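queue> holo job accepted (3,4-dihydroxyphenylalanine)
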Amino acid sequence: MSESSKLEEIRVAAVEDIQKLKVHSHLNLELIEEVRVKYLGRNAGLICILKNLSQLSPDVRPQVGKIANETRKMIESEISALRDNLVRIQENQKLVSEKIDVTLAGRTHDLGSFHPVSLVISKTEEIFARMGFGVEEGPEIENEFYNFEALNIPKNHPARAMHDTFYVSQNVVLRTHTSNVQIRVMQNKKPPLRFLSAGATYRHDTLDVTHSPMFHQMEGLCVDEKVSLSHLKGVLTAYLQAFFGDKTKVRFRPSFFPFTEPSAEVDISCVSCSGKGCRMCKESGWLEVLGCGMVHDNVFRAVKYNPQKISGFAFGMGVERLAMLKYQISDIRLFFENDVRFLKQFRTAL
Ligand code: DAH
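queue> job finished
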């Protein structure tokens, strides 16, 4: 077969293949490349003819060379047109699919919020920090010595009975209050001491609107020479008025705790009726918020402090209770259900 008719065959086949590409419903760059290699690749018939032109007789060489070059150019330009076209179509599709409607309302991210228990603790720590109180921590799993004995709670005290206390093993309990931290800190540090300690506490209570087997307390301790009941009253009044508002009235009522003498319970004027009497304060005008007192000599003796030389005051309060009063929350269970609709209400609180 002459070179010219070979070339004609190649041209016809190439035109046919290119036509197929043009009408292909799923054209892609690989398919185009296949056709390009078939006709313009190193071993393609057309390229071989071009390579071997010099071996042709001089009388056909110019004619064959001309047709071969024209055919190559034709295929090259068809292939590159196909490629350009395909790239343009793909870019357009991308533009359409990635189109951004700038008039659409933005999707906002929900901001997290602090748990009301955390809010009450940090606000309280902040108020006490202004009066020189640092922050201490203690274990939630505790020896009976720290939870009871050193706090002057004798072996037969009702607080130690099984119905109140979770026992981990014979002498080990889940702390029933944060007062254990008083003992641990006094054992490790010398007076003067001034700190607050917040954390989880556990009691064998059935869950209801006001009781939870796990809840939080904040404990305060101030120990130095000549600390008096008036310091206790001044510090706690300042705190309660900073926390609940400066119009809050504060009342100290004599009470009893084994680890303080004298002891008191503290009431504030009702946050709901300001003292007039309502359902929240059971018509009394007052709400109980904390327990406190002057540290008992026996407690000082248990940590080898000399009660002749130093004195101190202590207090303890329930975090959930404070939060319930401050935010008028009626059910303690809400704190532990983690319902976002409840939690997110405290985003800007405090
Ligand atoms: N530990 C007591 C309780 O859980 C609260 C308390 C009362 C703590 C008086 C004190 C205090 O430090 O002085 O009910």
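queue> The mean pLDDT is 93.
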